[in-house]
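Before we proceed, please read the two lines closing this message. Let me know whether the structure tokens fit the sequence:

…
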Amino acid sequence: MNRKFQASYKFGLIGGAFCVISFVIFQLLGIDPTKLSMLFGYILIPVFLFIGIRYYRNEVNDGLLSFSEGMTAGFLIYSLIAAISGIGIWIILMISPSLYEEIKAQKIDLLQGNKELIVEQMGIESYDITYQSLLKMTTFDIATNDFIWKIIPGLFFTIIISIILRRNFK
């Protein structure tokens, strides 16, 4: 496990830093940073997973990679990316309450703008519950959402990349 961590942590740290930087850049550009940070993560995570698992296979494990080794290395990479991104976003939102309020207001406006559609499809109770939960939303909720939406695709991409890069013979 130690060899896998030593080979993987660099890719997780760099990927997480890229996610936090993208959050800041999207905010500075006036774009909803929460949505585009997640979208950017869907592009960034498979790239760092592929490079990291391939690095582990070629440089650390003598060109061999079992499915379980690829899954372990990938888990370390996407978990670090998600943790650093989530913690970074939480810190940014704690430092900048105005950004947090802006994001919260955007989400409430979006919900209110789609009220008719939501009520038609899900019912008024569902809309009211969602509205009340948005009013109670905290900076930690935003960061946790980002974390979760980096873990889920990370697992999916790790499975695929571990299968593609698997090599049990030289």
